[in-house]
Amino acid sequence: MTKIESKVIDFIKNNVLLFWFGAVSIIAIALRICGMDFKSDDFNSFLNPWWSIIKQSDFSGLATQVGNYNIPYQVIIYLMTLLPFSALYAYKIVSIIFDFVLAFSSAALVYSFVKSNAKLKAAITYSAVLLSATVIFNSSFWAQCDSIYTSFIILAILFLHKDKPIASFVFIGIAFAFKLQTVFILPVLLYYWISTKKISILHFFIIPAVDVIMCLPAIIMGRPFMDIITIYAEQTDYGKLIQMNCPNFYALMCDGNDMTYYYLFKQFSVLLTIAVLGIMMCVIIYKKVDLKNIETFLLATAWTVFTCIMFLSSMHERYGYLLDIILIVYAAISAKRLWIPIVSTLISLRGYCYYLFSYELVSLKVTAIIYTALYVYITFLLVKTIFKVKSSDKVLKGTIQK
Q1: Of the candidates 376, 304, 372, 329, which has an alpha carbon nearest to the alpha carbon of residue 114?
Q2: How far is it between the farthest Cα atoms of the chain?
Q3: Own/partner pairs for 122-128, CB < 8 Å, 24+ apart?
Q4: What does the alpha-carbon distance between residue 183 and residue 106 come to, in Å, rounded to a whole number?
């Protein structure tokens, strides 16, 4: 073997994970290219018309609401209209960019907290997120933007556990400015505030402050300040169906296409969700659970997001996106129960295939049974973790006293 060959081989060995990242990224881009020309019903009915209105209105158009997305996303779309892209490609390019941000953020979170083989587990996490079927379908086929707010939530978790709460809540504020579904993680932040005393209730005011700052371009152009509030208020009343292709609790109970159930269960669903989340808060307070442990925190986060999906009304199939990513990161850090994110993602994939391609391999009711079973199991895991941690503490204290 020549010296040059030896150096090349040594370089490859020393940078094998870098090559892994490169190979996975190339595969991810190739898979996304396959969906770039696909037009979903959402694009034809909503996204494309919104694009035309924003493009015709120019920057002054920010003074009026277009569509039902919040102002920061409308600003991004306006900026994209200035570039030589079609509406279809522009929406998808923005989302695909954030697919990579999400994958890197998830990898960084895993790398920061795993105790062994950190680089390898980070690389696997990057691959799992970037090559996830629902992540690919969400951006390159559906032209949706769930990777944006989810990226900032992952970054918020990373900075929260690095004891940088201000940065963490700024990221939560950015996520909230893009998607109302960010509220799904607020309960676990309240749990963290109570259990760790590492943050102040004042940190929570950063969230709406960041939202307001990000909406300033529209306010400057003359948009009423109350629009910042009314946009999300109107979203909560959109659809008027008890569930929208989401295999949750209500898919087991009734026909989601009957509007009667929406009016019957809407208020009940909110009260039920608050009650379930409140019970868990009482358990965490009573058992003095320390959520500074990243595994426990991620499990609690997955549970709170799952609880909101299971019991709130008008849930879409896409609202499981954040849950799927949290479960991938949890599995990577805990290095156990790897089947959980696989099952969760496959359930989400059923909803995507049904909406995008009108293909239903498994019925919604059967999927709802599996989803409910998974929720019960994650609830069991969280309760078991809470009581196991407390019991371990007692054993340790008894050993020290002896």
Answers
A1: 329
A2: 77
A3: 123/17, 123/20, 123/21, 123/24, 124/332, 125/328, 125/329, 125/332, 126/21, 126/24, 127/20, 127/24, 127/103, 128/328, 128/332, 128/341
A4: 20
pLDDT in tens, 322-337: 999 999 999 999 988 9
Angle ∠(170,326,275) on CA atoms, nearest 5: 85
Q: What is the pLDDT of residues 43-93, one digit of tens each?
A: 999 999 999 998 888 788 888 888 888 899 999 999 999 999 999 999 999
Q: Which helix (H) or strand (E) holds 391?
A: helix 364-401
Distances from the Cα of 173 to the Cαs of 2, 43, 238, in angstroms? 56, 27, 23
Lowest mean pLDDT among 19-28, 36-45, 103-112, 358-367: 358-367
Domain of residue 130: give its range. 3-401
Question: Residue 215 CB: number of other CB atoms within 10 A?
Answer: 22
Domain count, the chain: 1
135: its two tokens: 């992540």
Percentage helix, strand, coil, to 5, in the chain? Answer: 80, 0, 20
DSSP string covering 331-343, please? HHHHT--THHHHH
CA distance 305 to 23: 32
Q: What is the rounded CA–CA span in Å between residue 215 and residue 75?
A: 9
Q: What is the CA radius of gyration of the chain?
A: 22
